[in-house]
Prior knowledge:
Layout: E1 2-7, H1 17-28, E2 40-43, E3 52-57, H2 60-68, E4 73-78, H3 91-102, E5 106-109, H4 112-116, H5 122-129, E6 133-137, E7 148-155, H6 157-168, E8 173-175, E9 192-197, H7 206-211, E10 216-219, H8 224-233, E11 236-239, H9 242-245, H10 248-261, E12 265-269
Parallel strand pairs: 3-4, 3-12, 4-5, 9-10, 10-11
Antiparallel strand pairs: 1-12, 2-5, 6-7, 7-9, 8-11
Helix pairs in contact: 5-10
Amino acid sequence: MTANHTIAESNTQSISAQALTQFCDDYLSTSAFKDYAPNGLQVDGGRPIQRIVTGVTACEALIDAAIANNADAIMVHHGYFWKGEPAPLTGMKGRRVRKLMQHGISMIGYHLPLDAHPISGNNAKLADVLGMTITGALYPTESHPVGNIATCTPQTADDLIATITQALGRAPLHISAEYHADSSTQTNGRLIKRVGICTGGAQDMIEQAATMGCDAFISGEISERTTHSARELGIDYFACGHHATERGGIQALGEIVAQKFGLPVTFIDIENPA
């Protein structure tokens, strides 16, 4: 676990959880999305917010880090109350919420709106660190696309692997568009110029990326079927880690909040290999 940075160290101001949530709701256009969990304020700690911790997922380790940092609020990409999960606040879920309430910490989460934001979103920030320029939507009819198409300097798969590894601190799992059963390597010499991007668990969008003429598709996770899809569709696939591809959006949102309200915001990275 590492605290990457704190913005606006000197703090003389505070804001209510409701006011902070309203600002973020407006900035991220949350009303435009049908999501798998509620976006915005999920747990109200009941006190003014003077210090904020951000992180990818509202796990217990992040809550403990927020307590240690005397935070009044946690802002995350993966919050609580997902569709289909049991409603009772028992077990692991109960422990998490109980700690938040006992320490007066509000928890604010944004899922799809934080993937899709054209400036501060996960896709946008991933494209930035990979030196790519987003040019459109993976699904052209979406007004707030959660998947994007980007262009980059023509490069081989090996070049892109090196760029991803340096940017994210981990090597991606690469499935080559050109599969050779008798070869120990899956890299190839074809040039990648047009790339589909959707962070997190969007591996099944690979078919749409191929349909849209992408040379490669980048996401976080991989399924058994993804390997066959990449080979049969003729598109390189890079599984870069769900957590690793979704650090950028919440960090960017924290920076926006710090600049807007003059509050100290600390990003805490809870190590996660998945």
